[in-house]
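[09:14] KT: can someone run the structure on this one? pasting the chain below
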Amino acid sequence: MPNQPRGRRYRAALAAACAGVLGLVVMAAPAGAAPDREPEAAAASMVSVPDVVGPIAVTAESYPFSTLGRARVPVDIAERGFVEEEFFLSGTANVYDNPDGSLQVVDAGVPYTNHVLVRRPANRADSSGVVLVDILNASNGFPGEDHLRRMWDWAMEEGHTIIGVTSKPIQVDALKNFDPERYADLTWDVEDVKREPIIADPADPGSFDPFMVVPGAEEGLAWDIITQVGTLLESNHGRALLGGQKAKTVLLMGQSQSGIYLNTYASNFHRAVTEANRGPVFDGYLNTVGAVLERPLRQAETDGLVVVPGTEPALDVPFVTVTSEGDAGLFGAATLAEKELPANRRHWQVPGTPHTDLLSAVIPADEEILKAGRLPNTAVHDASFRESLNTYPLEPAIIAAAEAVVDWSKSHKDAAPSQWFEQSDGALSRTADGNVSGGVRYGLMEHPLGQYRGAAAPGAVYGAMELISAEDFATAYGTRADYLALIGEVDAARIRHGYLTEWGADYFVGVANGLMDRIGVPAGTAAAAAEERGGRG
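[09:31] RB: done, structure tokens below
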């Protein structure tokens, strides 16, 4: 059985069960269940604290999938003062639906065992108390740590903890492929279905659909599983995940498909979970490149992800959405159109940026992905392909948004206002240099080194870039030092206004220097070159 909730959670569970404050409607009780106890079971699921097993032992033969030590570029996080640990969480979860707009339980108390991967400061004194819970992305069929790949360096510098939560049965299937013995206990099954492992064929990549429905499993367990990670972190048992550290501020994050999960969770569960617990279990939300889309609450009988327009209801915690230009090609420009928002929500739309970053060092190595029965992107190893990618970074905006949500939650300091792409006739508008107009404009966009396209074609996620010549650079900007001064002035203003951090400004310096190297801009004096190398990239 899951650990019993403590303190205010226990009192809240009693109050919710007795008073029925959640407004949940039970549709069909499982065989043998007592119908008059179903509302209590529904309320209890939202305050329940799961059992924790771990950290799971690591040996040369048995280790976590996506361990940073086996990334594309291996990272020794111990040298950074961090530890990496894997845990299994077990409990029961409900399956919900909302056919008439109200939250309904269609199946209660389904047992599950799920996987989380934790990176945290090794020493309690180095912990910031900020815990970033990431809904792991399933768009490649394995637990994709998309936020980690874009913020790991910053998070370690700040002393933040990142917890990745497996969020879909197709990911559990990949883990079982990766190490059947290590991950034998994981289950999202609702039926006893005998099936062969789902393994993608590298020789026939088109035959594998990472959005497929896994027979016998149920994607709709995700919502209570996510909630129970939050209740765990707020309980005394949560310190088991944090090495005895205390979670002071907990954000829930999702990128792309997981951003759609995040929207769905906030719209359908935040209020009910907050009422059940007499306070929010997540102190804020960060959506990266998930637009305003949602997904059905229960498993759809379809081979693809079904999305519907999001409603963006008012919340009592901050919610910031960071949107790339590439999202217009993936989801349609109409989903990014400017609109009125509730007071606690913001949209930062960043022109020039692709939907995803293939060049992150901490993506799992190809052999690790293949071992999980999934397909790595091998094109990234081709120099010409890498050269074609758009390197205009979304990372500085993501980092600034994360810090803004933390500050908003802790000190009630509002995040910077929403900034929207300009649109005309359902398409993004462009300036004379070919770049998208409007949105959050950093120095690299206000003084462009070429045309940055978020998507090379509709539905593409990597983007493309066409740089100016060295001659045009010299005419427009002069020297490398002159150019860095220009973008530095713009980015200093963005820092003052809350759209950028010093960390992000350094990141832009590194990217700018890399682009100028490709253009052929001379490095300048030794002193200037030393200053330029101070940036990240």
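[09:33] KT: thanks! Residues 7-275+284-292 form one domain.
[09:34] RB: yep, looked fine to me
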